[in-house]
Design a protein that fits this description.
Length: 303
């Protein structure tokens, strides 16, 4: 089968950001790779807004969810549908992205040619400043258990040497072959949001697969739009984000404990959590302080 004939299920999870989702779909529909279908999982859907979206984009396959199931569970709904309908590839794509018209083919070509790969990701640039890198793959510090994003906030220029492989792949955009996904399994829904992509990546690597980065494939990311509130005395970032940041990091380290240095991760988690606590105390952000402590408790107790 020719590469451009391979079928792709592109899964978008929406949570109240219909304008961003519509813009993302518009950019996808300009793609020069045509054999894909968009599967939209609409968390805590608004009937009126969803009808407007479907009237504009009649080609969508839509799953309506009454509650916000989170990133992991929402994507799993789309993944199950894609597997049941025999798509060759499955792509997870954040709804707050817009893509270049030629972004799909380089991803498919790379994974088709390199059979060591479990999944690939594109180069992700900031939408507001398209010369600034948002994500060029992920790094994993096994001593401290620290995950970081390569070249974040670096200016894109011809002197940058990109690594063709990555320690972990951002959930912002992942392309994975369906036959590999059946071996790896679905996203771990316990994470809800955050670190589920790192967990998925590590599970692929545990099965012997490498993870690829494709600089020729480019998308643009609007930023963490779903995690921000109107500015209050608690700041603009939702307190739930801090809860999941603390909780899920601990859950990840415990789940993959054989990868990490015990003393290093304990040291780093103490420093990280203590820094959050002191910062929110100084800023009188007691709701966020409570959520950090709750996240610590739930992470340690596997809740």
């Amino acid at each position: 089968m020719k590469i451009n004939k391979l079928s792709i299920a592109v899964i978008l999870v929406n949570w109240k950001k219909y304008n961003l989702t519509s813009n993302c779909i518009d950019s996808l529909n300009k793609s020069n790779y045509k054999n894909f279908k968009i599967i939209l999982v609409d968390n805590e859907y608004s009937e009126k807004s969803l009808i407007e979206l479907k009237n504009k984009h009649k080609e969508l396959i839509v799953f309506k969810e009454k509650n916000n199931l989170g990133f992991a569970s929402g994507n799993n709904i789309g993944i199950r549908y894609a597997l049941e309908n025999d798509y060759d590839y499955i792509m997870l794509l954040n709804n707050d992205t817009e893509v270049k018209e030629n972004f799909i083919l380089p991803l498919v070509e790379r994974i088709e040619k390199d059979h060591s790969l479990g999944a690939v990701q594109p180069l992700i640039l900031n939408f507001s400043n398209k010369s600034i890198i948002w994500n060029a793959g992920g790094k994993l510090n096994k001593f401290l258990g620290l995950t970081s994003t390569r070249l974040n906030n670096n200016k894109l220029n011809s002197s940058i040497v990109f690594d063709d492989y990555t320690d972990w792949i951002s959930g912002c955009c992942i392309l994975i072959k369906s036959e590999i996904l059946t071996k790896v399994g679905l996203l771990d829904e316990k994470f809800f949001n955050y670190y589920e992509d790192v967990d998925w990546s590590l599970r692929m690597k545990n099965l012997g697969y490498d993870l690829g980065f494709v600089k020729e494939s480019i998308i643009y990311h609007h930023g963490s739009s779903s995690s921000k509130n109107k500015k209050t005395k608690e700041g603009v970032i939702s307190s739930k984000i801090h809860y999941f940041n603390i909780r899920n990091h601990i859950l990840l380290l415990k789940k993959h404990k054989n990868l990490f240095n015990f003393f290093g991760i304990v040291f780093f988690q103490i420093i990280k959590t203590t820094s959050y606590i002191f910062y929110f105390l100084i800023k009188f952000r007691f709701n966020k302080l409570t959520m950090v402590l709750k996240g610590l408790k739930h992470g340690l107790n596997n809740k």
